[in-house]
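Lab notebook, page 48
Experiment: co-folding of the full assembly
Goal: obtain a model of how the components sit together before planning crosslinking
Operator: M.T.
Materials (sequences as entered):
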Amino acid sequence: ETGVTQTPRHLVMGMTNKKSLKCEQHLGHNAMYWYKQSAKKPLELMFVYSLEERVENNSVPSRFSPECPNSSHLFLHLHTLQPEDSALYLCASSQVRGRGTEAFFGQGTRLTVV
Amino acid sequence: KQEVTQIPAALSVPEGENLVLNCSFTDSAIYNLQWFRQDPGKGLTSLLLIQSSQREQTSGRLNASLDKSSGRSTLYIAASQPGDSATYLCAVARSNYQLIWGAGTKLIIKP
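Observation: model returned without errors.
Model output:
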């Protein structure tokens, strides 16, 4: 285990469903991230939370809604998704201090929208 | 705009060979560069992080170099093993929070 745990590992949902992805980090880090990884594309940063405040949001559609209740937990709430949202969703954490920080990733949630 | 390119996209070599994976970036103003490996359908494992002020980092059979002036990094794998088969990704940090990613090199080590 990497210290970053994601659940569920696999999720199949219909376009009208509402579901949530969960991420928990056990590393004492102060920043957490959601990434989307689609086939044959570079990773896309979706959201960044630092000290429980969102610091970056890369124009992600509103059908994705993040929540960071504390520095160890991060959620991604999903509703009315589209088939093109099917991808591997990765959570990461890091300890931000000065310049240069190492990111640690969870195992990802494989999401299929049908 | 920072762009990260990894060449080749795929590489297949016999077991035991030494090999080099390449990563290039367009903007030398970086915080650090990080190499990861990803096994099929799984998350990313951090391999090496090179700060912008460093030239190289080593971990076991892995050695990563950084040349900011030319916008290049290499990941050297010595005495390759079948267990090294994976996709290798490089990412450049352009801020405390944002990593710019390459598309990866898929490596296959043939027994």
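Interpretation: The longest strand of chain A covers residues 18-25.
Next step: discuss with group before ordering constructs.
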